[in-house]
Each structure stands twice: as structure tokens, then as C-alpha cells.
Design brief:
By secondary structure, the chain is α+β, with helices and mostly antiparallel strands. It contains 5 helices and 4 strands. Strand 2 (48-54) and strand 3 (59-64) form a beta hairpin.
Length: 117
């Protein structure tokens, strides 16, 4: 089995696509969907599900709610990020607050990471 593909998580990924947060919806429907670099939502990579993944640039974008700032979740996120990095995938995180309150900066940062600025 390809270690970057875990079919057991497909059902979870589909459910997450249907239950996106308002910040994820904003990021997807007003920005990522229209970029020249294709992104996929809720992409299964290994034993994890990335919020948004651009295979061409090997870039994961994460939209983090308040639970990501709790100690247990921070440890899990570090482990997850390390897994992605070990597999040549960069990870960029934005808080839901940043997406809601400073969307232009978030968009500009994404363009920078994609080398599209």
C-alpha cells in the first residue's frame, strides 16, 4: 500500500468536505478554487486529512479553529506537520480568525507560497 494513501480515511474526508467551516468555505469558494494551481479539499495523505492540498506545489494549507491552540491538539498538529514535511510537503497554517479578519493578507501569503505573487 502507498503510505501516502489511506483508503480507510476516505469516508471521513468526504464528510469533512460536506461540513466545512465558514472559514474553509470562504477560502475555497472565493479564492483557492480559482487559482491556476489546482487544490483539492480534505485530501487524505497517510493517516491524516489535509484541509487543502496542492499536489503541483506539494503544499498543504490548514485552517485552524480554536481547538488547534490546545496543548493536546498542538502536539498532534506538530506530529502531522512533521509527517507531511518528511514526505516533501510544506504546510502553511492560518487561524480561522486570520481568514475571517485579514483575508487579503492570507490570500497574499498563499500566493507567495505558490510563487504566484
Amino acid at each position: 500500500m502507498n503510505e501516502l494513501y489511506n483508503p480507510e480515511l476516505i469516508g471521513n474526508a468526504k464528510a469533512l468536505r460536506k461540513a466545512m467551516t465558514k472559514e474553509e468555505r470562504k477560502l475555497w469558494y472565493t479564492f483557492l478554487k480559482y487559482l491556476p494551481c489546482k487544490f483539492v479539499r480534505q485530501k487524505v495523505i497517510g493517516h491524516y486529512i489535509a484541509d487543502f492540498y496542492c499536489p503541483e506545489k506539494k503544499l498543504v494549507l490548514e485552517s485552524d479553529g480554536s481547538q488547534h491552540f490546545e496543548e493536546k491538539q498542538e502536539r498532534y498538529d506538530l506530529e502531522r506537520t512533521e509527517f507531511f514535511r518528511e514526505n516533501g510537503i510544506a504546510v502553511v497554517r492560518f487561524s480561522n480568525y486570520e481568514i475571517a479578519k485579514d483575508f487579503e493578507r492570507v490570500k497574499n501569503a498563499i500566493l507567495y507560497y505558490l510563487n504566484l505573487e
